């Protein structure tokens, strides 16, 4: 995949992350119980974990952290699990957002990944629609996020 294709995938993934993660400049505790800041950042680019004692950050810093996480952790993790996504930057973006939300491990072990690897776009969309629960209930924000990811899949 060319650098421009990787850039496109990262920007599309970031465009999904921004509204669904929301921007919080002050540290907060995320639903999973971790100190978080910016667009859902738990680990800073320098490797330090966000702390509730950290000062507020700027929107520019939050943007830098998001793009760093997508480029350094989530996109490479998805590509390691699904190298075939090299030829599908929109689908790569969708799965990168999925991994940002739920973790690379969940993507790697999922039936969703199997559908992606088989280029079964319809089956992948069906699988995405299953990942909408939090705390045992369907969350409207996750329904919208999975639909936005599905819209980037081919087919």
Polypeptide structure, described:
With 155 residues, this protein is mainly alpha-helical. It has a single domain (3-150), classed as Lysozyme. It is built from 7 helices and 4 strands, in the order αββαααααββα. The strands form 2 sheets. A two-stranded antiparallel ribbon has the order 1-2. The protein has a two-stranded antiparallel sheet with strand order 3-4. The chain starts with a helix and ends in a 5-residue tail after the last helix.
In short:
The chain has 155 residues and is mainly alpha-helical. The chain has seven helices and four strands. It has one domain: Lysozyme (Orthogonal Bundle), CATH 1.10.530.40.
List the topology elements.
Blueprint: H1 3-21, E1 24-29, E2 35-38, H2 59-81, H3 89-102, H4 104-108, H5 111-117, H6 121-128, E3 133-134, E4 137-138, H7 140-150
Antiparallel strand pairs: 1-2, 3-4
Helix pairs in contact: 1-2, 1-3, 2-3, 3-7, 5-6
Task: Indicate the CATH topology.
Answer: Lysozyme
Mean pLDDT: 95
The helix count comes to: 7
Spatial shape = globular
Rg is 15 Å
Unreliable stretches (pLDDT < 50, length at least 5) are none
Distance between the termini: 20 Å
**Strands of the biggest beta sheet: in what spatial order?**
1-2
Name of the top-level CATH class:
Mainly Alpha
Strands, total number: 4
Tell me the helix content: 55-70%
Largest sheet: 2 strands, antiparallel
Classify the secondary structure makeup into a structural class.
mainly alpha
List keywords for this structure.
56% helix, single chain, Lysozyme, mainly alpha, 155 residues, 4 strands, two-stranded antiparallel ribbon, two-stranded antiparallel sheet
């Amino acid at each position: 995949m060319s650098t421009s294709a990787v850039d496109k995938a990262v920007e599309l993934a970031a465009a999904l992350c921004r509204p669904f993660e929301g921007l919080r400049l002050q540290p907060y505790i995320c639903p999973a119980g971790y100190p978080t800041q910016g667009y859902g950042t738990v680990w800073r680019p320098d490797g330090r974990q966000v702390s509730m004692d950290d000062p507020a950050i700027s929107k520019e810093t939050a943007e830098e952290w998001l793009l760093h996480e997508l480029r350094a952790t989530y996109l490479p993790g998805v590509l390691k699990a699904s190298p075939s996504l090299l030829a599908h930057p929109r689908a790569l973006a969708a799965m990168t957002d999925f991994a940002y939300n739920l973790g690379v491990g969940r993507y790697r072990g999922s039936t969703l990944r199997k559908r992606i690897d088989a280029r079964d776009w319809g089956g992948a969309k069906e699988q995405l629609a299953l990942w909408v629960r939090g705390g045992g209930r369907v969350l409207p924000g996750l329904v919208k996020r999975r639909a936005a990811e599905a819209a980037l899949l081919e087919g």
